[in-house]
Amino acid sequence: MNDKKRVLSGMRSTGRLHLGHYFGALKNWVEMQKDFECFYMSSDWHALTTDYQDTSKIDENAFEMVADWISVGIDPKQSVVFKQSKVAQHSELFLILSMITPLGWLERCPTYKEQIKEIKNKDLNNYGFLGYPVLMAADIFLYKANFVPVGEDQLAHLEFAREIARRFNNFYGGVLIEPKECLTKASKLLGLDGRKMSKSYGNSIFLGEEDDILQEKIRNMFSDPLKVKKDDIGHPQGCAVFSFYKAFNADYMKREQECKAGSIGCMLCKKHLMEILSAFMKPFRVKRKEIIADKAYLQKVIDEGNQKASEVAQETMNEIRRALKF
Ligand code: TRP
Fold first, then answer.
1. How far apart are CA 14 and CA 285, in angstroms?
2. What is the pLDDT of residue 3?
3. Which residues contact 16 (CB under 8 A, 6 or more apart)?
4. What spacing in Å lies between the alpha carbon of 321 and ligand 1's midpoint?
5. Which residue segment(s) compose the domain that 269 sits in?
6. Spatial separation of the C-alpha atoms in residues 270 and 86, rounded to whole Å
7. Mean pLDDT, each 10-residue run in order, the chain (326 residues)
8. For ligand 1, which residues put their CB under 6 angstroms from it?
9. Dihedral sign computed on CA atoms, order 320, 171, 108, 129
10. Is 142 found in the same domain as 229?
11. What confidence tens digit (pLDDT) does each residue in 241-257 have?
């Protein structure tokens, strides 16, 4: 046992990762490895809450996602990389927590309300989807995680986890740890159209994107609509291109001044961005190709991670059962 604090985080295995995932959370995952004992999970049960009608891609996506993680710097020698559905304790604790979860807490959850309203192509009126935050709380508690690096969209779920931990500890004694979120310092990266970057909006730049596609996407990227000629005065706030300069920390204050002074045009600004993005993607692509070619290695990483995660999760489950007098 070491005395490092614990970190747990997860991502739903629903498809390719984009730069929003990277700057929103993954960058923190990589950085936290040196100071904490980290557990990183492909949450395939969470993917099932929305993709239950077509499950054909969930497993393959998990594989691809883990390849992405390793390619950006998650090191399986330092961190435990595993699959939620292979560690049975997640479903066990989910069941127990569901007994003490007030329905009102779930129905009031802002992510729940928003998604029920926004997502029209799937029927999400089911028990599992309502219980999404309960499963997420179980994920966190099993590893006694102190910190959870996530994107801003997950904050309500962490608040929920803390409330459930308090309620559980009140009933049965203090076994569960109240987790804290860790947000990345990077400012919000906008999608190609100026809205939040999200796969469902079709406005993403994916990790490992090839140069020709990058070029095309950047060319069409939303910029300041008031800046028509290159020496027009620009408004970098709200410009998607500028949000990238900020996220990549690429001398953005200078760029902001140039844009506001009308001394640089959008075409040149986009050309520079292409150079930044292309240089960022290149080593990632090389590494990813290597990893994907070695399926046996990836499988071994996940198998070993499942094993280690199960051991830790079982220890916690023993304590929880004792607390419940079961
Ligand atoms: N809900 C998270 C997301 O959509 C994924 C997730 C599942 C998670 N379990 C978790 C994140 C536990 C942090 C901790 O991004």
1. 20
2. 84
3. 64, 68, 199, 206, 207
4. 24
5. 208-289
6. 44
7. 89 93 95 97 96 95 96 97 98 98 97 90 94 98 98 95 98 96 86 91 94 97 94 94 93 95 96 97 96 96 98 98 97
8. 8-12, 43, 46, 136, 139-140, 148, 150, 154
9. positive
10. no
11. 999 999 998 899 999 99
Let me know if residue 202 belongs to a domain. no
Do both 90 and 128 map to the same domain? Answer: yes
What is the CA(7)–ligand 1 centre distance, in A?
A: 12
Question: By alpha-carbon position, which residue is closest to atom 6 of ligand 1?
Answer: 10
Tokens of 75: 């090191």
Q: Does residue 194 lie in a domain region? A: no
CATH classification of the domain holding 269: 1.10.240.10
Give pLDDT, residue 1: 54
Q: Which of 111, 150, 183 to mutate to test the pocket of ligand 1 (most atoms within 8 A of CB)?
A: 150
pTM above 0.85, yes or no: yes
Tokens 């040196």 sit at which residue?
A: 34
User: Are residue 184 and residue 266 in the same domain, yes or no?
Assistant: no
Rounded distance from Cα 211 to ligand 1 centre (Å): 31
Residues 282 and 312 both lie in one domain:
no
Atom of ligand 1 nearest to the CA of 11: 5
What contacts 89, CB < 8 A, 6 or more positions away? Answer: 142, 310, 313, 314, 316, 317
Q: Please tell me whether residues 231 and 92 are part of one structural domain.
A: no
Write the CB contacts of 270 (distance below 8 Å, at least 6 apart in sequence): 218, 219, 221, 223, 241
Domain harbouring 39, CATH code = 3.40.50.620
